[in-house]
Amino acid sequence: MNIMVIGGGGREHTLAWKLAQSPKCTKLYAVPGNPGMAEIATCISGVDITDNAALVAAAKQHDIDLVVVGPEVPLTNGVVDAMTEAGIKAFGPSKEAAKLEGSKAFSKGIMRKYRIPTARYEVFADPATAIQFIEEQGAPIVIKADGLAAGKGVVVAMTVDEAVRAINEIMEDKAFGQAGARVVIEEFMDGEEASLLAFTDGKTVRPMISSQDHKRVYDGDKGPNTGGMGTYAPAPVMTPEMVERATKEILEPVIAAMAKEGHPYKGCLYAGLMITDEGPKVVEFNCRFGDPETQVVLPLLQGDLVDIMLACVDGTLDQADIPWSDGAAVCVVLASGGYPKKYQKGYEITGLDAAKAAGCQVFHAGTAEKDGKVVTNGGRVLNVVAQAPTIHEAVDKAYEGIAKISFTDSFYRKDIAHRALEREKK
Ligand code: AMP
Ligand code: GLY
User: Fold this and answer.
1) Nearest CA to ligand 1 atom 13
2) pTM (predicted TM-score)
3) Residue 42: CB partners within 8 Å, gap ≥ 6?
4) How many CA atoms lie within 13 A of 335 on its CB side?
5) What is the residue with the minimal CA distance to atom 4 of ligand 2?
6) Beta-carbon neighbour count of residue 370 at 10 Å?
7) Which one of 15, 229, 293 would you pick to mutate in the ligand 2 pocket, going by the greatest count of ligand atoms within 8 A of its CB?
8) 175, 242 Cβ separation under 8 angstroms
9) Which ligand has its closest atom nearest to the C-alpha of 143?
């Protein structure tokens, strides 16, 4: 089969790497891809990934049998509907189903209607009423822009003042544009967070191995939120009993709900969970694989990703074989100095082969090729991933690998997987 991956970050590099291992994969393409993906796929440049017609034309031109969509924007734009109409199989939810991520008000509405455990909330389109509600509720309280804001539209306010400031920034100063025309105001949930991704064909749901992301930029979970500075899998907080509860109380009900609403959800569903004293509750749903969760989840998948994705598209997931490794995986993100604020691009990267020789996978997240050299081209530049029988061995191996790579002003968190390591010690 000819397969086309849409996207060009670390998640998409990992997807491409896993798809390429399937005997069913004859030719692999990536739009736009990146220099790391270019080692295993043909990268197609000059196609705008927000232009469905251009993506369909590229898929037709290269005789694509299966399209795998990485990022949320093409999904919420309906690229899967466009491919399906053109007779091309595509892994991912339809435009309507992708609203589970695309609109927090929609997703909270589904959870309320079908009694899926999540924080209590209200939606506001008017700043004055929002502020009045915050004053009634008190702090801590959580403010979220309704639409897509690249993971940055959430403020966990520890004081009423901070919450009011967030309303002003999102609704009056329009810090996230139209995405902030409405806000969701939520009850603060206390607990440990975990990510649970699942394959689904719209009827059957099969959870993947759990993982945990580190969203803050600095060690000790300090500093501003980022797209994710590192991950590990499995997450010890997600015991088999907790995975079972999350599957029965969250994943299966939401997939049944979407089918009942007339918008069956197919593809990968990402549940961001808070493990509270009352059990797992939903922080957010994403309509795609997590980044950088994918970088630790897929290496532990022992099954054939092409077969599993086809089963999701064809509605035969109940028959699919999805074996997982017993080991652990850790991903450390190597970032550009200044990220998540302003940073420079274009620095030469060295030591990639040495990191691989140390037994790591190096997935490219924000790189480019210039004069035959690999240079930095984003905030999160590389994802160094190690696999081992235990988390602490995987941590040691990932840090050994990342130490071999260098570029000007690079930095990374030194404490990835600290919660799991503390539990391992106990
Ligand atoms: P989100 O984009 O919805 O995943 O939110 C970003 C981050 O904000 C999450 O990963 C949590 O750490 C935090 N957060 C979001 N909602 C809540 C909540 N209701 N209670 C506590 N923390 C939250
Ligand atoms: N790692 C968080 C996300 O993919 O949304």
Assistant:
1) 156
2) 0.94
3) 27, 28, 29, 30, 33
4) 25
5) 290
6) 12
7) 293
8) no
9) 1
Give distance in angstroms: CA of 62 to centre of ligand 2.
30
Instruction: For residue 225, give the ligand nearest its CA.
Output: 1
Q: Which residue lies with its CA nearest to atom 3 of ligand 2? A: 290
The verdict on the CB of residue 119 being under 6 Å from ligand 1 is yes
Question: What's at 323, amino acid-wise?
Answer: P
Does the beta carbon of 191 lie inside 6 Å of ligand 1? no
Atom 15 of ligand 1, residue of closest alpha carbon: 283
Nearest ligand, CA 151: 1
Q: Quick check: helix, strand or coil at residue 74?
A: helix
User: How many Å from the N-terminal Cα to the C-terminal Cα in the chain?
Assistant: 48
User: How remote is the CA of residue 271 from the centroid of ligand 2, in Å?
Assistant: 10
189 Cβ below 6 A of ligand 1: yes
Residue bearing tokens 């990268």: 43
Q: Ligand nearest 192 Cα, by number?
A: 1
- Ramachandran bin of 138, using left for φ above 0, alpha for ψ from -120 to 50, beta for the remaining angles: left
- DSSP states of 49-62 as a string? TT-HHHHHHHHHHT
Regarding the beta carbon of 101 and ligand 2, being less than 6 Å apart is answered: no
Give DSSP secondary structure letters for 144-203. Answer: EESS--TT--EEEESSHHHHHHHHIIIIIS-TTGGGGSSEEEEE---SEEEEEEEEESSS
Distance 382 CA to ligand 1 centre (A): 25
> Could you read off the pLDDT tens digit of each residue along the chain, which spans 426 residues?
999 999 999 999 999 999 999 999 999 999 999 999 999 999 999 999 999 999 999 999 999 999 999 999 999 999 999 999 999 999 999 999 999 998 888 999 999 999 999 999 999 999 999 999 999 999 999 998 887 766 567 889 999 999 999 999 888 788 777 777 889 999 999 999 999 999 999 999 999 999 999 999 999 999 988 889 999 999 999 999 999 999 999 999 999 999 999 999 999 999 999 999 999 999 999 999 999 999 999 999 999 999 999 999 999 999 999 999 999 999 999 999 999 999 999 999 999 999 999 999 999 999 999 999 999 999 999 999 999 999 999 999 999 999 999 999 999 999 999 989 988 777
